[in-house]
Design brief:
Helix content: 25-40%
Radius of gyration: 19 Å
Strand order of the largest sheet: 1-11-8-7-5-6
Number of strands: 11
Shape: globular
Order of helices and strands: EHEHEHEHHHEHEHEEEEHEH
Low-confidence stretches: none
Distance between the termini: 37 Å
CATH topology of the largest domain: Rossmann fold
CATH superfamily of the largest domain: NAD(P)-binding Rossmann-like Domain
Length: 280
């Protein structure tokens, strides 16, 4: 029996409907998201268009600032400082990838933590150790939401996170610990990955390597969250999980595209409303 697909587009649509109600209840107060992009990146342009369309649906004004490709780190930090001081800006993000010579960590630390709607400032990341922060990392929060959507009891569930990045692997591991899930984090130094994934009730894969996890590496009925986005040999977008083989074994599975991505955008909008002061 094939897995039940976790349709991120439909889940995100329901989230946007709730966010729209929260935005309406917030009244006439400004809610503005600023997106900073350095140069023109086709992949980032698609992402920004999706963000802007979703923001408009929720009732959030999104301002896109395109900086020249030759923008220096100092100039970018100056722009961020200006946005930090603008009272009409609820939140901001800097689109990736950033040009060589600009340190993403330095940039992230320059953003006011209260306007850090990506949830990547050390202040927001650190809060995860105590509780779920007001502004959690969007992709990790999206992965958590998709797991919650299954209705699984997370208490005591064996969870294996494949990948230990700051953006997904580390924060999702801690977020699930708050639900009393038993979490193992695997990475490039892990020996015998299959021994870990085969016993997991929940597998979250966020590595950036197409087809890393196959169906024979999964426990029958497991919930599999595929965060990976890779370009296959034929040009199509694929995940870190081999979809065909995993679909025959898993109980729940996210497609790529159409799984984690749309929910990540919805989380970005939720964070923006929260940063503005809305109760959501």
């Amino acid at each position: 029996m094939p897995a039940q697909l976790l349709d991120g587009r439909q889940i995100a649509k329901r989230m946007r409907e709730r966010l729209r109600k929260a935005r309406d209840a917030f009244g006439d107060r400004a809610v503005r998201l600023v997106s900073l992009e350095i140069g023109q990146n086709p992949a980032a342009a698609v992402y920004v268009r999706n963000q802007k369309r979703a923001a408009a649906e929720v009732g959030i004004e999104m301002e896109v600032v395109n900086l020249p490709v030759a923008t220096s780190e100092a100039e970018l930090l100056s722009t961020i400082a200006e946005l930090n001081n603008r009272a009409d800006v609820s939140g901001m993000l800097v689109q990736r990838p950033m040009p060589p010579g600009i340190d993403p960590r330095t940039v992230q630390m320059a953003i006011d933590p209260q306007k850090d709607v990506e949830g990547m400032h050390p202040t927001n990341m650190g809060t995860i150790l105590y509780k779920e922060p007001l502004l959690p990392p969007c992709t990790a929060a999206a992965a958590q939401q998709l797991i919650v959507e299954t209705g699984m009891d997370l208490r005591g569930a064996e969870t294996v996170v494949v990948g230990h990045s700051e953006i997904v692997g580390k924060p999702i591991a801690v977020l699930l610990l708050h639900h009393l899930s038993t979490v193992t984090v695997c990475h490039i130094g892990t020996k015998n990955l299959i021994e870990h994934t085969r016993r997991a009730d929940i597998v979250v894969v966020a590595v950036g390597k197409a087809g890393l996890v196959h169906g024979d590496m999964l426990k029958p009925g497991a919930c599999v969250i595929d965060v990976g986005i890779n370009q296959g040999p034929d040009g199509k977008i694929v995940g870190d999980v081999d979809f065909k083989s995993a679909n025959a074994v898993a109980g729940f599975l996210t497609p790529v595209p159409g799984g984690v991505g749309p929910v990540t955008v919805a989380m970005l909008l939720r964070n923006t409303l929260r940063a503005a002061g809305a109760a959501i």
